[in-house]
Known about the structure:
Chain A: It is found in: Cell inner membrane. Chain A: This is Heme exporter protein B. Chain A: Its main location: membrane. The structure holds 3 protein chains of 3 kinds. Chain A contains 9 helices and no strands. Chain A is an all-alpha fold. Chain A has helices at 2-17, 20-40, 44-65, 68-76, 79-85, 90-119, 127-151, 158-186, 191-220. Chain C has one domain (19-39, 47-180, 197-237). Chain C is mainly α. Chain C is built from 8 helices and no strands. The two termini of chain C are 27 Å apart. Classes of the chains: A mainly alpha, B alpha/beta, C mainly alpha. The B-C interface holds B 14-17, 37, 204, 207, 209-212, 215, 218, 221-232 and C 1, 3-11, 83-84, 146-150, 224-225, 227-232, 234-237, 252-253, 256-257, 260-262.
Amino acid sequence: MNGFLAILQRDLRLALRQGADSVMVVAFFIVTTTLFPFGVGPEANILARIASGVIWVSALLAAMLSLERVFQTDYEDGTLELLTLSPVSLELLVLGKVLAHWLTTGLPLIIAAPLMAVMLNMDQNGFVTLMIAMLLGTPALSLIGAIGAALILGARRGGVLVSLLVLPLYIPVLIFGAGAVEAALLGISATAQLQIMGAILLITLAATPFATAHAVRQAME
Amino acid sequence: MANFSGSDLTCLRGERLVFGGVSFAAQSGDAIMLRGRNGAGKSSLLRVMAGLLSPRSGQICWDDENIADDRIAHQARLQYLGHQDAVKPVLSVRDNLRLWGQLRGVKNLEQEIDTALDVLDIHHLSRVSGRYLSSGQKRRTALARILIGQSDLWLLDEPTVGLDRESCGEVSRMIADFRSSGGIVIYSTHIDLEVDNPVILDLDKFAIPMVEWLMEHSEFDDLGPDPAQEAAQ
Amino acid sequence: MHRFAKPSVFLKLTDPLLPWLAGATAILIATGLYFALFASPLDYQQGDTVRIMYLHVPAAWMGLFCYVGMAICGAMSLIWKHPLADICARATAPIGATFTALCLITGSLWGEPMWGTWWVWDARLTSMLILLFLYLGYIALVNAFDDPERGSKAGSALALVGAINVPIVKFSVDWWNTLHQPASIVRMDGPSVDPSMQLPLALMILGFTCYYFVLLILRVRLELNERRIRALQLSGMFDERSDQEAEKANSYDAGHNAEASQ
């Protein structure tokens, strides 16, 4: 457990010192979301209709863009090699790094989401569900993304590649995340969707540390 | 007395046979110096010893127990110094070192860091961020890392790269101290590091031609070159 | 040189199999096409368009079959670390991607006259499209490394992860579709398929499967031979300077050792 806290603390400290990273993710999220009204027109009820989908798609893209820094810099400067060789299980370290990634990208996105919902004229009774859905969905995004980020270590054109690998796997989160908000907007209970999102989170939480650690070990060979 | 040995190691990197049939043995207090031309597999052998790379054949044992059976135990006893220094530019030297101590579960961590920094003569830099360090100072930070915490085995890949003559002396002293306390050091170097009678392992002798090796290893048939076609025609 | 004349295990096993498989493929597809195009009845609603189905359904089957095959290869590479499993997965991917694309294209060709539109966000079509994306991601990953072996290994891990995800994706797409789709879409799976249609369908599915195995064997051979060539180049056999010695047996040994002792 000490190893988990140590890597979490180090990654958070790194993210704070290079503060621009987190800010950039949120800025990307906001800019992408604001592009949609330009694309579909400023009509309030159309924007309200597509708000939940737009917010989720933008959050997906923002989370994906920040994936590269989970392992890439550590891989380049030899840190990852030493982490693999440290007497702490790599699975635990991977989990620590993913948690740090979520705290520095997922969490700011959740805070920024209601703001964008207001700008897209989303009805107020969807806000709480949106935030709960994002609270369940964004950790799953970080976890799934970590596998992709680990698989592309040492590859050419890693950035584009990771999007091709990871985005299809993000589809379930998108469907249920947007579905939950839509249900809430229609006044139906969103419990079913949120429960499925919880299930997806648990499955990814159980499976990704092993897959990611395996991919990292492969990259070290 | 600890005993670190490897037998009949063969290493394949990206379809290229690096070396074959390497064996070595070391007891507490021993030092092994790896020698060989570029591409002879010095780094690969050190990575195999660390467990980062699995050998194509052969095994490595610590006290007659295969290191692949208990990786965490092997990782707890070894310190590895690679080509890269793993110094984060935005963290201070002390913060950089702290992570590795924490991962090893070192008690009295701050004290140990102080001692390590003193040995490498960079204590005055402990609060400086990594980005302001010269390459030699980064290398010393990396060397300080291997002094933190208990270890029985040092695997040093070109420890003196980027260091001046004086610092090389410090590295020699570090190695001598570690050996006198019962550690095993295995290192590769281009310059002559002053180490007391190391065992020399010349990897050039183990560079066997791929074709020859394949003739003896038929289980590899499906995986690598098999000039059967050419011979048949 | 006699020891070199030992063909590898893979070749030994597949060499006698290949002509039989190729023959079976030709016969099955030829008879299947005959029944599909001439000897099967027209659908009373769909007319000749129904004949697209004899390509579409086998292609869809192959798309799924190949992905399952890739995932199994990935699992085998994980468990037994046998590089042949990686090579098989790598050889399967483009075949599966082509069949999936074929399925989507024939589906939209069928959909235009039947549904009046080239594309609908039907659950099956959408799932197939995502499957195609998964294939493309795999192919891109496998080819993104300088060391092909590393690419194959990473690909196997991805295929396994993708296979765990496929049911989840399928489930979520079905769920999404029932929520959004107006129920007016004609589904292709009618209550029953007429026996006269079953025969050509079965022939075509079998024929496509045999075709896949023929391609797989050829592609794996190609990959193995490419590796041989690369390894031989690395071993110094093709050194231009030793051209005049090339006729003498074992000249490469001498050449290599000379190089090694430099």
